[in-house]
Amino acid sequence: MRIVCPFCGERELGEFTYLGDAKPLRPAAGGSEDEVFDYVYLRDNIAGETSEHWYHGGGCRAWLKIARNTLTHEISSVEPAAGVGQAAK
Amino acid sequence: MAEFSWASRSPLEDVLVVGAYGARDVEPGISLTEVRNFDLIQMMARRGKWAEMASTAKDRFGVAAPDVPKAVSASDVTLIWSGPDQFLVLSKGGKHAMDILSQAFSQSASLSDQSHARALISVSGTKARAMLAKLSSLDLHPASFPIGAAAATSIDHTSVNLWRGNDRPDGQAVFNLLVFATFAESLWHTMLDAAAEYGVDIRLSEELG
């Protein structure tokens, strides 16, 4: 598998690290226990198009947000993940 | 209180042996040169300050700061792209050292002195690309990696900054490689292994190419 880093160009998988689902948003400060539990633990196991965070640690060290199909491994978009981890507005 | 004397030394000091290595009775296909005693500053724009940092860099160095994977050179400095909104400043002689740059860029960038935290290795020769092809997954053919091309990549699981300098007088391509000091010895051995079959000419230099 190869990933086209928006900064470096096409690179081999070995330069990247998978973080996980890019969907969960950190609950706002003072969020309920259920919201925090959901954010920390609950994940969907999607067969198809997913949104994921990857880290280009073997290259430019940018965090990326990648749309990938878990059935085909086809990557349909790669974009910088600047600002991820911000609390939900 | 204990007195310390911090003498800087190359991370390759114990392993680099100047002279011939590998295949004998052939014209060496690889030239490996370690460049010692340089000033290297990592520059990272503060959030939203890239334009201001680039403008200061243009005034200071006389060349536009690289915002894509390229290395740009002026007479006394090379700016090497190292990631989004960041680049390395490679120079000699203290003119662009930390104490000076940190004042010039105090409003726009965060700086980190890497002068003794990296080893600089220059690879050239008729077999340079064949040797690097064993170690790197990048296409280093002149068509896709021309003079001035740069990459932040991994070689043998070790992060490196790789860029193509000006050709040697004999027309051979020159690939420059910055590697973390603590990984330099490991990478050096890996490169020697990859290069041995072509015959290696190992050198030391105090001059930036």
TrEMBL record, chain A:
Q: Highest taxon of the source?
A: Bacteria
Gene3D superfamilies per UniProt? Folate-binding superfamily
Short name of one Pfam family = SoxD
Query: InterPro entries per the record?
Result: SoxD, SoxD_sf
Q: What is this protein called?
A: Sarcosine oxidase subunit delta
TrEMBL record, chain B:
Phylogenetic lineage: Bacteria, Pseudomonadati, Pseudomonadota, Alphaproteobacteria, Hyphomicrobiales
The signal sequence is none
The UniProt entry, under InterPro entries, shows: SoxG, TrmE/GcvT-like
Q: What is this protein called?
A: Sarcosine oxidase subunit gamma
The source's domain of life comes to: Bacteria
Recorded hits in Pfam families, A to Z, give: SoxG
Q: Which organism is it from?
A: Mesorhizobium onobrychidis
